[in-house]
Amino acid sequence: MTTVLVSIELTPSGDVRPGLADLVAHARSIGSPVGVVTVAPGDSASVTERLGAFGLAEVLVAESAAVGAADAEPRVRALVAAAAARNPTAVLIANTVRGRDVAARVAVRLDAGLLLDIVGLHAEGKRVVGEHSVFGGAYLTASTAGDRMTVATVREGSTGEQPSPVTASASALEIDDTTVPTAVITEATEHARRSERPELRTAERVVSGGRAVGSAEGFELVERLADALGAAVGASRAAVDAGYISQDHQVGQTGVSVSPELYIALGISGAIQHRAGMQTAKTIVAVNKDETAPIFEIADFGVVGDIFTVVPALIAEVEARR
Amino acid sequence: MKIITLVKQVPDTWSERRLDPETGRVDRAVSEAVIDEISERAIEAALALKDADKSTTVTLLTMGPAGALDALRKGLSMGADDAVHIRDDALQGADVTITSRVIAAALLRRPWDLVIAGNESTDGRGGVLPAMLAERLGVASATGLDSFELTGGAAGGDLVGRRSADGVDEVLRLGFPSVVSITERMPDARFPNFRGILGAKKKPVEVLTAADLGLTDLHPAVSVVSVAERPPRQAGTRIIDDGSAAAALADFFASRRLI
Amino acid sequence: MTGSYGADETSVELATGLREFFNEHCGLDRVRAAWSDGSLDLALWGEVAALGFTGALASEEVGGLGVQPEDLVLAIEEIGYSGASLPLVDTAAVVVPIIERYGSAEQRASFLPGLISGERIAASTVMFGGDRAMFAAEADVLLLERDDCLHLLDRRQFSTVEVHSPDPASRLARVSVESSVLSDATRLAAGATDDARGRAVWAASALLNGVSRRMLEMTVDHAKTREQFGRAIGSFQAVKHLIADAWVAMESSRPCAWYAAHACSQGLADAAAAASVAKASASDAARVVGDSALQVHGGIGFTWEHPLHFWMKRGKLLEHAYGSRGFHLRSLGAAMRDDQQGSDAVFPGL
Questions:
Q1: Could you name the CATH architecture of B2-208?
Q2: What ipTM was estimated for this complex?
Q3: What is the pLDDT of residues C297-329, one digit of tens each?
Q4: What are the Electron transfer flavoprotein alpha/beta-subunit N-terminal domain coordinates in residue numbering (chain B) (predicted)?
Q5: Are C94 and C224 in contact (CB under 8 A)?
Q6: Which residue is closest to B171 within chain A, CA to CA?
Q7: C-beta atoms of C67 and B198 within 8 A
Q8: CATH number at residue C265
Q9: In CATH, what number does A3-172 get?
Q10: Looking at the DSSP assignment, which residues form a beta bridge with residue C124?
């Protein structure tokens, strides 16, 4: 079995990003995953324990005083050291803003081929082939780095697989402290989770609101339906620009791309940029007053009607049938 | 402060975008090419620094076909001082490895303190170019900034930026020279005024080929092996609400085992 | 959008810049607001002035941009197209260049900076039989024709009474001046009157062509989407021909405005005739386009619930302002007759 390095992204408070499950699942499809993580000195044991839950049996842990202070560089250094030690066929990194920085630098430092935002991974002989969903899922492409080592960023939520827990064992990874210029993180705050709602990127169900929701107060209606269905809350750019909801809920070309089982668009016209972020959803439902809204062209079930009458009634129906 | 802003021309996102089924590259013939909105914001960020300190110079840099000159002209008419256009048929279809090598080589030809780029282009969406450039140039980078300010000048000063991404708010500090990328939360680009439009034609645009940059062995690190177009989604049932839509929707959910 | 006749890169770029600005800053809601409250949108005025429009035709020596008049024709069309209700044409295309060319040193020093920067707004009565002017009530500066001389007045020197305008967002006022006010100090140098008339006429023609272009575009959109008998109405030959005729009228008018501006800026012998041709054809095109638009829209647009209405009413106002089609055809006829008698009269029909 070939080795596939999996880069672990921790939040400032030390939590593991849930998207790690996708990285591990993709790594399994071409080899055996080995986690690589950087922690502050003394934190090795506690992080290793938690990584078993993601199905990682083996983890390389680098301790560095720079963790939490230097942007990207400790993770880059750990991956480069791990690659030198284990000669992996591929290095997988989450396609997050931070993950992309790490991937960019690792790919250059290792002279590897960089595959971006993959949704699938397979081996063809000795080649590693990554699959991409392009222009909002209108195309599926596959690409390969050929004989080079592959560094790939992985779309979180692209497998939907639940990992089977194992017991993780850790070995220490030495990284040197020689420094290249780096940005220093002087403050880091995690967004407060406002509810128990699932995370948008990986949610199986998403309820999104658009400009027609009309106000920040109106968005409570979107949230109530989301809660009734156990869904995450999304929004169109128009709703975000109008200030109804914060930007991290934005679905679409310049926001998050989602591929849930169910996507419900409330008062969203369905501009091409929004569709690019949600049209790979398995089932799409749209409610919109405007019968000519382009969202209806891709909806499996469309209701021409006022969201303020349809949605409250729908919430009642859903709760009654539970 | 000498600033270089990276500019990309992309297919208009308001029109249909297609991939060439043979190469897997963006088919640039089917949609109108426009300056990427995020590039305009990056130019605006640079010009805002120039507004605050008149000694600041803003140079635009793009890699693209002859038509990309329009994107540079737009930026020059907004107020940038000059531009570099890397134009070489051999670079058509360059992957991010080649692109980062070429742009890094072009950046090495002139002095600068700060490179400002968009966080990701609307066509490629890779979002890795700024950090790859920083790595090749051996400088610090900060990506995905929603805002930033300078404390002090190019010598000994710092850039302090804020980003909010993937559930974390951060403040990042870095010195010069460095590379930053900005998000669409940065201010909208200014409209070029008539003086800027009239003056843009007189501003210098340096045209470079890969050979001018001393790059001859440009082989992509990644190749596309297949391209498949997904059949477009079909519209399904559509009903007009007469009071029974909620029940019909709930039935639909039940039929798909969603409730 | 832009024609190819004589339209070089500069004129296309200026027009494109202005169009992008108006797309962002002068949507239908802002057009509608100007109609409902009837007051001048000073914020929009300030933004357009800041783009450099008001000083475009002034030379760089006086703080302008030195744009050639013919290079501003497409940009002026964009104003008509946008629906913005602003006295841009009088200020930028007529009053500023006329002051620069025919004003005394004192007049240039006291009037040009404020007009070029957009701090002051100008109106002119050169074509209105001498006493009516668009936006005169809002203007800080008035260019007034009396006894074939042009006088330059500031706000304290004239008074206005509002009169009915078919376009409530382009308000009309009757201006009056105490005869004691008019003196050598207010008078502009000889030649100013004819020059100002020529400029006002070609600029109004370009503005009107922009109005027509917008009406025609709305009409084509409507014909493509409105269905009758299960087909888009634009697929019926009767509708198609109506629109095609309107397009021909408009497209034949657009180059005339360009040539009139060119002839005026170059001081060509046929400048006055070219201005008359431009306005006669622009008025004709606006009538043909407006009538077809109303037909194709099935009568909606006659009332102001439909946005077509804004451009229709502005078209009607401009069709007759700065000389109607009939007036300019008569001028042309008279000029041809006088030509044979060796006269060099300009706009002899006045």
A1: 3-Layer(aba) Sandwich (3.40)
A2: 0.90
A3: 888 766 777 888 899 999 999 999 899 999 999
A4: 23-217
A5: no
A6: A187
A7: yes
A8: 1.20.140.10
A9: 3.40.50.620
A10: C143
